[in-house]
Amino acid sequence: MSSLYPGPIPKPTPETKAFWEATKEHRLLVQRCRDCQQYYFYPRPLCVHCLSRNVEWRQVSGRGRVHTFVINHRPPRNYPLPAPYVIGIVELDEGPRMLSNIVGVQADPQHVRCDMPVEVVFEDITDEISLPRFRPAAL
């Protein structure tokens, strides 16, 4: 656990509780509609594709590709990652996109590219919260 984590700590809500409980166990869950079979993220009570309320939580592979990214050289005050750091949108193999940090590239973030394969890793920031991050995938 990173006891020196200075960044904002997520506060689970009824809609996100299952997500945060899974990340604490280093598992990645996203919602899936039982009617149209589509996955979606961020957590909400109805499917973004067909508006059904018949949704469930499913564990996903945690693998995906960088959809887009930015290399930030000037972080906001008290941001927990040293500059430069990479903020990316990752398209999971199952379809939904997640905003997260691309880690394991701080020494040379210029090698990050769109469509780069990535995999989820988890950073334990408290006893209750682990943040999903993505690193270049081991091929």
Helix and strand arrangement:
Blueprint: H1 17-24, E1 29-33, E2 39-40, E3 55-59, E4 63-72, E5 85-92, E6 97-102, E7 117-124, E8 130-136
What does this structure look like?
With 139 residues, the protein is mostly beta strands. The protein has one domain (17-136): OB fold (Dihydrolipoamide Acetyltransferase, E2P) (Beta Barrel), CATH 2.40.50. 6% of the residues lie in helices and 37% in strands. The protein has 1 helix and 8 strands. The chain has one helix at residues 17-24, and strands spanning 29-33, 39-40, 55-59, 63-72, 85-92, 97-102, 117-124, 130-136. The strands form 2 sheets. A 5-stranded antiparallel β-sheet has the order 6-5-4-7-8. A 3-stranded antiparallel β-sheet has the order 2-1-3. The chain is globular and about 45 Å long. The chain starts with 16 loop residues before the first helix and ends with a strand.
Total strand segments: 8
CATH topology descriptor: OB fold (Dihydrolipoamide Acetyltransferase, E2P)
Number of spatially distinct domains: 1
CATH class: Mainly Beta
How far apart the termini lie comes to 27 Å
CATH architectural label: Beta Barrel
What is the radius of gyration?
A: 15 Å
Let me know the average pLDDT: 91
Name the helix and strand elements from N-terminus to C-terminus, one letter apiece.
HEEEEEEEE
The percentage helix is under 10%
The strand line-up of the biggest sheet is: 6-5-4-7-8
What shape does the CA trace take?
Answer: globular
Strand proportion, as a percent range, falls in: 35-45%
